[in-house]
Design a protein that fits this description.
The protein is of the alpha+beta class and 286 residues long. Helices cover 27% and strands 20% of the residues. A four-stranded antiparallel β-sheet has the order 1-6-7-5, with no helix packed on it. The longest helix has 22 residues, at 199-220. It starts with a helix and ends in a 16-residue tail after the last helix.
Length: 286
């Protein structure tokens, strides 16, 4: 799933390549992906693009008085196509959800692999017209994300720390992978009660989140879009590395699997050596 660092890189790439260009053509190939009807998608045709911006995991192209917004969900991505042809393809067939061609002949495709279609596209007059954007929490790369702000966010959360970190209403942009990484760096159990952290632990987690996210953004800077996914995987310490050795202590990285996702952690670094067999036993590690 694309998270803040990947979406930030996509945003910067698109901003550089679309700014000042006019939308020549736009083609919807996944009817279910379009979540708005007023303004219509065709309203962006002929609009001059002022650039691309990011809100959490949302990408937003500013098309004069409108915004074309995309949330890539679990399996969505952006493909940049020099000499993009618009018109080929049938509605509901294949991975391409949207094509957008610029006046220079180049363009982008929004794609989504797999059968779980959750990619979302919006055409709105204001970014706050997108429900997911209106309800976003603090952005961890903004000046507002201080240790005090993180403490305030966690103070009212009685659930697990892992769940609080990936709740977009609390912190915008952090997902499954980078929450695993930050918790490992901060040496905190994913199963701790969020509100139970003391001031020193909050400060450690705040620093870990910033370091992990900023490092990922820096590593992805300047990479072609096709290289962002592989760069994300190679930069991980514990996420996606079940069964491998922890790079800090050498213990075996463990996994807890849920219905649609999994988390990874190091028992020695994060849970006092205790291994969580499954989510039903999470109360043992609070």
């Amino acid at each position: 799933m694309p998270e803040l660092p990947e979406v930030d890189s996509l945003t910067r790439f698109l901003d550089e390549h679309v700014r000042g260009h006019t939308v020549e053509a736009v083609q919807l190939l996944s009817f279910a992906a379009l979540k708005t009807f007023d303004p219509p998608l065709d309203a962006v045709r002929g609009a001059r693009l002022a650039g691309c911006t990011r809100r959490g995991k949302f990408l937003a192209l500013q098309a004069e008085t409108l915004f074309l917004v995309a949330h890539l969900a679990r399996a969505g991505w952006v493909r940049w196509r020099p000499g993009l042809e618009v018109g080929a393809g049938k509605l509901g067939r294949g991975p391409v959800a949207l094509r957008l061609r610029l006046d220079d002949g180049n363009g982008m495709e929004l794609t989504e692999q797999g059968t779980e279609k959750r990619l979302a596209i919006y055409v709105v007059r204001s970014l706050d017209d997108v429900p997911g954007i209106a309800g976003l929490g603090v952005d961890p790369l903004s000046d507002a994300f201080t240790a005090e702000a993180l403490a305030s966010v966690l103070r009212g959360e009685s659930g697990q720390l892992k769940h609080a970190l990936i709740d977009q209403r609390l912190i915008a942009g952090v997902g499954n992978a980078y929450s695993d990484e930050a918790l490992h760096v901060a040496r905190l159990s994913p199963f701790r009660r969020a509100s139970s952290l003391d001031a020193a632990e909050v400060a450690s987690l705040h620093t870990a989140l910033l370091d992990v996210l900023r490092d990922a953004v820096e590593r992805s800077s300047g990479l072609p879009l096709t290289g962002l996914k592989s760069e994300k995987r190679t930069g991980m310490r514990v996420h996606g590395r079940t069964g491998e050795a922890c790079p800090v202590c050498g213990d075996t990285v463990r996994e807890v699997a849920y219905a649609t996702r999994s988390l990874q952690y190091c028992p020695t670094c994060q849970t006092g050596g205790r291994v969580l067999a499954d989510r039903r036993l999470s109360r043992l590690l609070k």
